[in-house]
């Protein structure tokens, strides 16, 4: 419920989620669950960290990471040739590419959205996309949008908010 509550960095639950993330950082698994619910974890992770407002985290082991770029890189790495995402572990229906692709697009949008707000933008990620993920590019590939069923402004399959051109 936290991910839909639109709380801010001062909320005790957001602080707790941020602290937990710092102690358990992993993009290889859903910590404590392995591959079960991995993409839902990415969705919750990005929304929680967006609410916390930090772009850079210092992890428990002392490493400093730019979480938005780390998550984007990992999700690009996991994308399938047809543009979708899917979990080989079907726990919680994550073998369904429609569900998992939706989770992934939400996670990428959450990673991009906060930066636009901090720069005084409208909260959309259109401006943030190219600045936030410059090494990936700007705009989603047609295949990932087709897989997600997303229709952008004016009914087109192009998205003004998607943070990266993903190889397909």
Secondary structure layout plus pairing:
Layout: H1 12-24, H2 38-52, E1 56-58, E2 64-66, H3 67-78, H4 97-118, H5 126-132, H6 142-148
Antiparallel strand pairs: 1-2
Describe this structure in words.
This protein has 168 residues and is mainly alpha-helical. The protein has 6 helices and 2 strands. The longest helix has 22 residues, at 97-118. The model is unreliable at 115-165 (pLDDT under 50).
Sheet with most strands:
2 strands, antiparallel
Strand residue percentage: under 5%
Which blocks of ≥5 consecutive residues have pLDDT under 50? 115-165
Q: What's the average pLDDT? A: 77
Determine Rg (CA atoms, Å). 15 Å
Q: For the record, give the distance between the C-alpha atoms at the N and C termini, rounded to a whole number.
A: 33 Å
Binned, the helix content reads: 40-55%
Helical segment count: 6
Structural class: mainly alpha
Tell me the strand order in the biggest sheet. Answer: 1-2
Could you state the order of secondary-structure elements as H and E? HHEEHHHH
Shape: globular
Number of strands: 2
